[in-house]
Structures are given as C-alpha cells and as structure tokens.
Amino acid sequence: MNAYTVEDKVVIVTGATKGMGLASSKQLLSMGAKVVMVYCSDTENAERVKEELKESHAHLHLLKADITQPQDRKRIVKETLEKFSTIDVLVNNAGVSSKAGFLKESEEEYDRVLDVNLKAPIFLAKIVAEQMIKQQKGGSIINFSSICGHRGSLGISYDAAKAGIIRATQSMANKLGKHGIRVNSISPGIHKTEMNRYHWENETDIFQNMVSVTALKRAAQADEMAGTVVYLASDQSSYTTGTDILVDGGYMCHFPGR
Ligand SMILES: NC(=O)c1ccc[n+]([C@@H]2O[C@H](COP(=O)([O-])OP(=O)(O)OC[C@H]3O[C@@H](n4cnc5c(N)ncnc54)[C@H](OP(=O)(O)O)[C@@H]3O)[C@@H](O)[C@H]2O)c1
Questions:
Q1: Positive or negative, the Cα torsion across 205, 210, 213, 217?
Q2: Which residue from 38, 92, 96, 207 has its CB within 8 A of the most atoms of ligand 1, so it is best to mutate?
Q3: Residue 243 zone, left/alpha/beta (φ > 0; ψ -120 to 50; rest)
Q4: Which structural domain range is residue 124 located in?
Q5: Number of domains into which the chain is organized
Q6: Is 255 a domain residue?
Q7: Which of 36, 37, 39 should be mutated for ligand 1, with most atoms under 8 A from CB?
Q8: pLDDT-derived band of residue 60, with 50, 70 and 90 as boundaries?
Q9: Which atom of ligand 1 is nearest to the CA of 94?
Q10: Domain with 242 in it: what CATH number?
C-alpha cells in the first residue's frame, strides 16, 4: 500500500501566496514537502506569507515569476533545481478570472485570461515534464480547472480556458504515462478567496444563487482544497491519471427542484 505522504517531495505551486495555492502549500509544508511557492505581482502579500511561514524556511523557496513569460517559466524550473535538485510535483494553481461577460469581453481580456489559465500551465507543464523524464522517477502534475470548465457561466474566456485545461490534462496524461508521470486536474466549486471576494463579502445574487444550487449549501474555505492536492501529489494516487476531480460541494450534481 502506497503511503499518504509527501515527505521530501519537491513541489512547485503557482499562485502559492493566496487562496487555494497558499492553503495547499501550507499543508504540503506541514507534511514535510519542499515547496517552491510562485507568486506574480503582490510582493507585499508574499513577504507577509514568508514571515508567517518562517519556521518552514529551510523547506520553502518563494519566487516571483509571471507564468505567462517563457523566461520566467524557465527560471521557475532552474531555481527549483538549484534549491532542491529535483522536481516531483507541479501544482498549476495560478489563475485569473474574467471581469466581463461574453458580449462585453475584449480580445485583450480574452488573451490575458487564456494565457494565464490555459497556455502558461501547459507550457510550464511541458518544461517540468521534460525534467521529470530526465530524472526517470515519474512525477505528478496537477492542473486547476473549475466548475466553469464543466458548465458554461457568463465569462467566455474563463470557461473556455478551464474546459481546455481538462482536455489538455488528458492529452498530457496520455503522452507522459509511459514515463510514470501522472497528470490530473481539479475542478473547484466556489471557494472564498481573493478571486471572488467581492461576491462572497457582498453576498451578491450570483453568489447566493451558486450556493443555493450547491448540495452542501455553502461556499468552501480555501483550505478545504488542500487534501485533494496532497492526495494527487502523494503516491496514494499512484494509479490515478488523466482524470478530473470535482471539489465543488455538489454543485455539478444539482438537480432542479432539489
Ligand atoms: N476561488 C474559486 O471559487 C475558484 C473556483 C473554481 C476554480 N478556481 C481556480 O482555482 C485556482 C486558485 O484560485 P484562487 O481563488 O485560490 O486564486 P486567488 O486567491 O485569486 O490567487 C491567485 C494566485 O494566482 C497568482 N497569479 C495570477 N496571475 C499569475 C501569473 N501570471 N503568474 C503567476 N502567478 C499568477 C496570484 O499571484 P499575485 O497575487 O502575486 O499576483 C495569486 O497568488 C485558479 O486556477 C482558479 O481559476 C477558483
């Protein structure tokens, strides 16, 4: 039986200083993993997180990088190897939402959302997979999708990107399986993070409607995601690849009139 452990695994987490990325990084660190925590623009927040996690400093490397930039993606891999010598797991968690609905969305906004949520995770996974193949000891790649990847909402680019990453995950799993590299996606339902703060703080109509069709009748806290990330990062999931795990409180099983 494989152990539910991530001890000594080297894990890259993008979007690691906020929301679900932060919660997952904390859980991984508490279980003995070495974590490269990637953030993008909010240095003040990242410094606060670094201070909060000061007891884990030997096991963490905080890195400012924009995953949409090819040279930054290369730097993520380079610094991980310099610091921890190997890469076992990539958590492609970083994401941005679209501000406008379909009819109002500009091409610039579409490109930005597709870049961060679809293109960048694919190309980061590519260079991480190349390294994992060289290492010859397998690995795990975890891509973040969304319930919006399963069912259209209002923002076309976000939905398209999140649907795309589920299919890209299957393609990667097909290609990398023979190297012992597993690739899976996670589709969160509504989690109370920065991304949707306006909605849950103000209990907007959209937020209330989404909660009302969620079986558990509530939104999740960010740390309710960490267990699924740890599961997919650990060898406990050694026969799980090419799949998507919904962590949505029962949003997708909604039955009208429930
Ligand atoms: N929250 C939800 O209800 C929900 C539901 C379904 C799916 N999801 C998905 O779950 C994942 C995590 O969401 P979250 O709500 O926890 O996010 P969040 O709290 O909004 O945090 C997003 C993180 O992504 C980083 N980031 C953004 N653009 C980046 C870039 N170009 N390069 C590197 N890092 C970048 C941010 O860094 P800086 O702040 O430093 O810029 C931040 O750390 C996302 O993929 C999201 O689409 C979320």
A1: negative
A2: 96
A3: beta
A4: 10-247
A5: 1
A6: no
A7: 39
A8: very high
A9: 24
A10: 3.40.50.720
